[in-house]
Design a protein that fits this description.
With 261 residues, the chain is mostly beta strands. It has 2 domains: 51 residues, SH3 type barrels (Roll), CATH 2.30.30; 199 residues, Fumarylacetoacetase-like, C-terminal domain (Fumarylacetoacetate hydrolase, domain 2, Alpha-Beta Complex). It is built from 6 helices and 20 strands. The longest helix is centred in the C-terminal third of the chain and has 11 residues. The chain starts with a strand and ends with a strand. 43% of the residues are buried. The structure holds zinc ion. GO terms for molecular function: acetylpyruvate hydrolase activity; isomerase activity; metal ion binding. This is 2-hydroxyhepta-2,4-diene-1,7-dioate isomerase.
């Protein structure tokens, strides 16, 4: 099932996305919240009549760096032996169609297409064989990065944590199992031109490895998001660009870049 979060007439709700053709999608409004007990209401609204919101409101976004060898190399970095994590704050999250605001303190902002894992239940010290049980589903992410700032500051809080630097969406796909999610085509286009094309099968550390690694250290909560790294081909965005992350079997996340007002 594809679960979207949206606003209509000032109310916020979750809905199951039904249909195949992009212009004919409808939302079956969900009674309750997707992480607990819920049912479909049968009340349907066309997707074109609502505003999609970030599909989840994470308490935290844990992101993993240099998890595709080709991307690590293109920036002159070693492929790390063990996964390494950093945070993107909840205030960095925006939804599909929301604007990425180019920050004033950077002159080199990059896109990074990434598979996002959405956590479905509170968990800590998750053993490898239980990882599949704590995953709610998957969505598309853009780990927008102020590359110049990342290079000159040891911690990446500003470079990767500025407001609007974490687009998520367009919805959470809950029908992919972990094996399927580990072999999906992932691509990024800017103004329609392809910039990144890879497969989640190219990750150095698997989805299981990443969840085991982070939950050794901290509790993950329902709605938390784990970003799994970006394939090769990262590059700059400029004001006016439209950037789209597409992951096979999930959908397309599109955002425009604007000057921060
Ligand atoms: Zn990244």
């Amino acid at each position: 099932m594809r679960i979207a979060r949206f606003s209509i007439d000032g109310n916020v709700a979750f809905g199951a996305v039904e249909g195949d053709r992009p212009d004919e999608l409808v939302l079956d409004i969900i009674k309750g919240i997707p992480f607990a007990e819920y049912e479909l209401s049968g009340t349907k609204v066309p997707l074109s009549k609502v505003r999609l919101l970030p599909p989840v409101l994470p308490n935290k976004v844990v992101a993993f760096g240099r998890n595709y060898a080709d991307h690590a190399k293109e920036l002159g970095n070693e492929v790390p032996d063990a996964p390494f994590a950093f945070f993107k704050p909840s205030t960095s999250v925006i939804g599909p169609g929301d604007d990425i605001q180019y920050p004033a303190f950077s002159e080199e902002v990059h896109y990074e297409a990434e598979l996002a894992v959405v956590i479905g239940r509170m968990c800590r010290e998750v053993p490898r064989e239980r990882v599949k049980d704590v995953i709610f589903g998957y969505t598309c992410a853009n780990d927008v990065t102020a590359r110049d700032v990342q290079k000159r500051e040891k911690q990446w809080a500003r470079a990767k944590g500025f407001d609007t630097s974490c687009p998520l969406g367009p919805w959470v796909e809950t029908d992919l199992d972990i094996t399927a999610a580990s072999d999906l085509t992932i691509q990024c286009t800017v103004n329609g031109a392809q910039r990144q094309l890879g497969s989640t099968s190219q990750m150095t550390h698997s989805i299981e490895d990443l969840i085991v690694n982070i939950t050794e250290a901290m509790t993950l909560l329902p709605g938390d998001v784990v970003l799994t790294g970006t394939p090769a081909g990262v590059g700059p965005l400029v004001v006016g660009d439209e950037v789209a992350v597409t992951i096979e079997g999930i959908g397309t996340l599109t955002n425009k870049v604007v000057k921060r007002g």
